[in-house]
Design brief:
The protein has 15 helices and 20 strands. Helix content is 34%, strand content 24%. The radius of gyration is 21 Å and the shape is globular. The strands form five sheets. Strands 16-13-15-14-18-19-17-20 form an eight-stranded antiparallel β-sheet. It is α+β, with helices and mostly antiparallel strands and 427 residues long. α11 packs antiparallel against α12.
Length: 427
């Protein structure tokens, strides 16, 4: 029937059946059919999760026919769950609208990005969970429901598909706006010294530290009244395609063959970083192009511990003897109201560790995870981690409430899989 393989090519499964529903009614029928035959059912997204969160050996629903704008009104748009984010961005721009904050990957489906806690970076604007005002869902009994407030809404926005299958998402929109992107290299020591100033002084802050160096690429995005001053086609190609993909991919491949050369390669990469600035439509500024395949682990920790955790991570890499070619990415968000958002109830800093996909380094992720958990770190649901329900219950204040709601809505665990059994428990 076909094998599902994720983007990073580290997760795959051959389900018993694959369906491509065209409506919420067809999703509901699939759920009822799964109940009759004693099978599980899950809907996958675009495959950008590094974990096995979306996998099922039962009925797998592919959302490729659940796409497009379904309705719109004053300050909102309703889209089908399988709509890729880049399609939503274009549709909104055509209408003179935008989403206030976005992540940097636009190939994801809106439901996949939402349910795994995709967040972007922002001083006052939160991630996707904070941009959603309504969800259409199919529950375990096959009924279709719409939620826009209350416990189910706060639980379902980041729910890893454990409470039901989302078939449509209504997103809050704002008038289209311009962002000024300022990119510049900075010393890590300087960034650490001025963390509070950098996070408080910019609408959106995103920076990348090159291991084995003292160099960061700091990206600051701030609203701009215009006019737009987009980068030239050549400049966009040179930075986004050549430097960040073609050349970077070649450097990673060389480092994989000659690991001892990675510190030198990273040092050269740091010296190639330059300063640039442009003003463009917000969704174009938020987006990045990622063609070099990698594996990723990301944790959200209380914002006040960011500097200390970064210093510990730097010291860990320095003494470990590992050779880490991929940058470490840092972003920040305000508190979230979604129960299982990594930012629930607290200003949050996200620290993302990556490795080149052909050369995984589980020891690096394990040691970095030990640092993050000392600061009550919460893992990104779509990125690699080893946490289980016992640990997660200690860092999510509403974890018990989420599990109780799941018990009520899906007592037979129609939507579960191995990943949910681990992170939510089997009881």
């Amino acid at each position: 029937m076909g094998t599902f393989i994720n983007w990073a090519r580290n997760q795959s499964i051959t389900p018993a059946e694959i369906r491509t529903p065209t409506s919420a009614a067809e999703v509901a029928q699939a759920v009822r059919d799964a109940a009759k035959t004693g099978r599980r059912v899950r809907m996958v997204g675009s495959g950008h999760s590094f974990t096995d969160a979306a996998l099922t050996d039962g009925i797998m629903l592919r959302p490729t026919a659940l796409t497009g704008v379904l309705a719109e009104g004053d300050g909102w748009v309703k889209v089908a769950a399988g709509t890729p984010i880049h399609v939503i961005n274009r549709e909104l721009d055509r209408r003179g609208r935008a989403i206030a904050n976005l992540g940097d990957i636009t190939a994801q489906t809106i439901s996949g990005a939402l349910l795994t806690g995709t967040h972007g970076t922002g001083r006052t604007e939160g991630g996707f969970a904070e941009q959603v005002i309504e969800l259409e869902m199919v529950l375990a009994d096959g009924t279709i429901t719409t939620v826009r407030e209350g416990d189910l809404f706060d639980a379902a926005r980041v729910s890893i598909g454990a409470l039901g299958i989302v078939t449509a998402v209504t997103i809050r929109t704002v008038p289209a706006f311009l962002l000024r992107c300022h990119r510049a290299p900075m010393r890590l020591s300087t960034v650490l010294e001025h963390l509070d100033e950098l996070t408080a002084g910019n609408d959106h802050l995103d920076f990348y530290w090159l291991p084995h160096t003292d160099t960061c690429l700091v990206k600051r995005y701030n609203r701009d009244p215009g006019p737009a001053r987009p980068p030239s086609a050549f400049h966009r190609w040179f930075e986004n395609e050549f430097l960040e993909n073609t050349l970077f991919g070649a450097a990673c491949a060389l480092g994989a063959r000659i690991p001892r050369a990675i510190p030198t390669i990273n040092g050269i990469s740091g010296r190639l970083l330059g300063t640039s600035e442009y003003v463009d439509a917000s969704y174009k500024v938020f987006a990045t192009v990622r063609r070099v395949r990698f594996l990723e682990m990301e944790y959200g920790i209380p914002r006040e511990h960011l500097g200390t955790a970064l210093r510990e991570l730097r010291d860990l890499i320095d003494r470990s003897g590992w050779r880490i070619s991929f940058p470490i990415e840092i972003r920040v968000t305000p508190p979230s109201t979604a129960w299982l958002s990594a930012a629930y109830g607290r200003p949050t800093a996200y620290i993302a560790c990556h490795v080149y996909q052909p050369t995984p380094n589980p020891e690096y992720f394990t040691a970095a995870e030990e640092i993050m958990t000392r600061y009550q770190g919460r893992p990104h649901w779509g990125k690699l981690h080893t946490r289980d329900a016992a640990y997660l219950a200690s860092v999510y204040p509403r974890f018990g409430d989420f599990r109780a709601l799941r018990d009520r809505l899906d007592p037979e665990r129609r939507f579960t899989n191995a990943y949910l059994d681990r992170v939510l428990g089997t009881a």
